[in-house]
């Protein structure tokens, strides 16, 4: 068991590209199909996890040439058109359901083969009998070590190389059917029909579509049985791209629900029209409040507008039910998840495991864990959300979630633990045996960590009309930062002082007026950016009122007064916490003394410059008559907090640069600072 992992809640929005591995289901199907193809196939984007390694090792032990480059996520396999080199082998399938089922059917293609197969304790209890019974009826023999007929692991499989017409009971697992479908084309005249129905239909669909991709489309007779109209070896693929795992993607679709309203996670290669039925989770997430933006094979998942409760049937994409079940504890109403009876016989009894751990967190579920234990046919779970209950239970310290060797338990509770339950970053969930994610997603917790952006403070200083506002706003918009215009603070204050008949030449009048003013903040949107604006006595003046000729004329003199600067300094510094509390990824603050006085330790410090003529033209274009050089002179020569290029600041002359160029240049500094430490 790997050491317990404490989950650190996200205090900044989750942002970045989710590093999602290839799909396990596709990788393991592709390995089987390529082994049955004529020639060499190369996979890109392949998954390297416990389950795929088990299948790769098994194929190697059967005499196949398989070479893998883990760093490049590629696998090269030499298919032998249906021939299995070794007629004898001992194979251990661990707890890998796909490897267990797919290999068993695959081995049946060997004439006169004899294979000893075993699995982990958990695998021994998982459904196999439907497949073994079908193969036995077709002429194979599956025997227990004592020689009696086997219905599960361990068993020795004696094979004939012929399949014939098979009937499979795949009601417990669609993999039992998929396993047989993939070998159908290799045995002329073979057909597979189903006793009853199966679960997780989309996985059967995936199998059929992949058989077709490898050159052997399957069809169905009128009676529903599957057959291959043009049997033979599959066609090797010079390059076959494995889709990213849609189930794994569900954790990153759910993550913004818990990490605040400015999240933005990119899931590359995520296609709703792809092979994986689990992409249906996106629809459930959207129904529960997720904002999802699909574009050219990339899904951008953004913050949820709350987590809405509801009733959902997960039968066709049940691997993702755990993802919803954990975040459901934070929802605004009960969440009912049905159609999940078959998951009670997967890596663990998933419904019972989920109910048990949710109850340990103080969450009410129906049926209860005790009821589930008493009746293994119960097939749904309703979660009654309560943050208060979570807080009560975790008040004395983090709760360790038991994961029952189930990777999906570990990952879904990892997402829940990312929620800042107490609002102070205190961890409240720990994950037992986090290494169990190796089954499908070996680097899950690293991928989660990689989306944790560091809060970034950006200072943008420069003379009047040097482009500070447009640059800062675009940066705020691009990087999810809160924009703070301190020039507007001085303008707002100047206006208020003028209205109170205070004058820069009469310090007592200024101090008297200041002592009566109450400062506050209001979130506003300007040019697509979110800005925090200063309110004085609750009043937020119109933008135009901050740029009147009277304010323009007086502001630099007022701003030079130490009493005025002291009055605003603490308020301006408090904007960093305000931005963080509001869930922004950072703050971009513009002015004259931000990098030198207000935030001298800002991670990114910028000093903008432009030719005086260019600046005068910019103001004129805005319809403003403003003596920029005159104001600069006053701002640069005053005693307190003069306009200077802060030490260590990046000096950027934008006279001949477009806004986009400047923003891209600064964006690089921001990205580096925002990287997880
Ligand atoms: O950025 P702006 O032109 O709106 O700023 C108006 C005035 O406010 C500017 O002439 C000087 C003063 N100011 C300051 O002294 N310190 C700041 N950090 C920002 C502005």
Which structural traits does this protein have?
677 residues; alpha/beta; UDP-n-acetylglucosamine1-carboxyvinyl-transferase, Chain; Rossmann fold; seven-stranded mixed β-sheet; 31 strands; 37% helix; 20% strand
How does this structure look, described?
The protein is of the alpha/beta class. It has three domains: 5-20 and 244-443, UDP-n-acetylglucosamine1-carboxyvinyl-transferase, Chain, CATH 3.65.10.10; 24-241, UDP-n-acetylglucosamine1-carboxyvinyl-transferase, Chain; 456-673, 3-Layer(aba) Sandwich (Rossmann fold), CATH 3.40.50.300. It is 37% helix and 20% strand. It is built from 24 helices and 31 strands. The protein has a seven-stranded mixed β-sheet, with helices on both faces. Strands 3, 4, 5, 14 and 15 form a five-stranded mixed β-sheet that branches. Strands 2-16-18-17 form a four-stranded mixed β-sheet, with helices on one face. Strand 4 and strand 5 form a beta hairpin. Helix 3 runs parallel beside helix 6 (174-183). The longest helix has 20 residues, at 562-581. The radius of gyration is 32 Å and the shape is elongated. 2'-deoxycytidine-5'-monophosphate is lined by residues 464, 486-487, 490-491, 555-556, 559, 591-594, 631, 635. 2'-deoxycytidine-5'-monophosphate binds next to helix 17, helix 19 and helix 23.
């Amino acid at each position: 068991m790997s050491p317990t992992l404490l989950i650190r809640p996200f205090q900044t929005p989750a942002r970045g590209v989710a590093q999602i591995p290839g799909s396990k289901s596709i990788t393991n199907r592709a390995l089987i199909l390529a082994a049955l193809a004529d020639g060499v196939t190369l996979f890109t984007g392949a998954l390297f996890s416990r389950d795929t390694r088990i299948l790769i090792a098994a194929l190697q032990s059967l005499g196949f040439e398989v070479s893998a480059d883990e760093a490049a996520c590629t696998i090269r396999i030499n298919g032998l058109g249906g021939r299995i080199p070794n007629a004898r082998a001992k194979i251990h399938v661990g707890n890998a359901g796909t490897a267990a089922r797919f290999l068993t059917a695959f081995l049946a293609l060997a004439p006169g083969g004899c294979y000893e197969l075993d699995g982990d304790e958990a695998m021994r209890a998982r459904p196999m009998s439907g497949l073994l019974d079908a193969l036995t009826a077709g002429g194979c023999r599956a025997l227990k070590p004592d020689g009696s007929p086997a219905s599960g692991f361990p068993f020795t499989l004696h094979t004939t190389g012929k399949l014939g017409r098979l009937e499979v009971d795949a009601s417990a697992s669609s993999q039992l059917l998929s396993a047989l479908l993939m070998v159908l084309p290799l045995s002329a005249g073979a057909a597979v029909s189903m006793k009853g129905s199966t679960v997780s239909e989309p996985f059967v669909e995936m199998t059929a579509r992949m058989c077709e991709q490898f050159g052997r489309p399957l069809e169905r007779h009128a009676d529903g049985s599957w057959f291959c109209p043009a049997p033979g070896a599959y066609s090797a693929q010079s390059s076959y791209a494995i889709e990213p795992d849609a189930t794994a993607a569900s954790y990153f679709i759910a993550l913004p629900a818990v990490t605040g309203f400015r999240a933005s996670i990119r899931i590359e290669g995520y296609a709703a029209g792809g092979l994986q039925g689990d992409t249906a989770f996106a629809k459930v997430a959207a129904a529960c409040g997720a904002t999802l933006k699909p574009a050219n094979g990339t899904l951008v998942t953004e913050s949820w507008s709350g987590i809405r409760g509801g009733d959902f049937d997960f039968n066709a994409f049940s691997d993702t039910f755990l993802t919803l079940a954990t975040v459901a504890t934070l929802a605004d109403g009960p969440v009912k998840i049905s159609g999940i009876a078959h998951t009670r016989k997967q890596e663990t009894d998933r419904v019972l495991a989920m109910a048990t751990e949710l109850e340990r967190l103080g969450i009410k579920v129906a049926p209860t864990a005790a009821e589930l234990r008493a009746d293994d046919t119960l097939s749904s779970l309703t979660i009654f959300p309560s943050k208060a209950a979570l807080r009560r239970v975790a008040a004395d310290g983090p709760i360790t979630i038991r994961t029952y060797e189930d990777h999906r338990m570990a990952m879904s509770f990892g997402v829940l633990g990312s929620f800042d339950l107490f609002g102070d970053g205190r961890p409240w969930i720990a994950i037992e045996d986090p290494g169990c994610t190796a089954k499908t997603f070996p680097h899950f917790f690293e991928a989660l960590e990689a989306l944790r952006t560091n809060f970034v403070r950006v200072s943008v200083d420069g003379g009047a009309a040097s482009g500070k506002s447009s640059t800062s706003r675009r940066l705020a918009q691009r990087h999810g930062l809160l924009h703070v215009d301190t020039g507007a603070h001085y303008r707002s204050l100047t206006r208020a002082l003028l209205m109170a008949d205070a004058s820069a030449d009469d310090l007592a009048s200024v101090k008297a007026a200041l002592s009566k003013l109450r400062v506050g903040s209001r979130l506003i949107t300007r040019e697509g950016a979110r800005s925090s604006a200063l309110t004085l006595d609750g009043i937020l003046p119109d933008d135009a009122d901050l740029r009147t000729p009277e304010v323009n004329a007086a502001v630099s003199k007022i701003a030079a007064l130490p009493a005025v600067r002291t009055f605003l300094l603490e308020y301006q510094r408090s904007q960093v916490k305000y931005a963080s509390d509001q869930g922004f990824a950072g703050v971009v603050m513009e002015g004259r003394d931000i990098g030198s006085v207000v935030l001298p330790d800002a991670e990114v410090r910028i000093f903008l410059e432009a030719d005086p003529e260019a600046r005068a033209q910019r103001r004129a274009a805005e319809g403003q008559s403003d003596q920029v050089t005159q104001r600069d002179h006053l701002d640069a020569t005053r005693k307190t907090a003069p306009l200077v290029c802060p030490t260590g600041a990046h000096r950027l002359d934008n006279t001949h640069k477009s806004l986009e160029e400047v923003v891209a240049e600064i964006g690089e500094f921001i990205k580096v600072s925002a990287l997880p430490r």
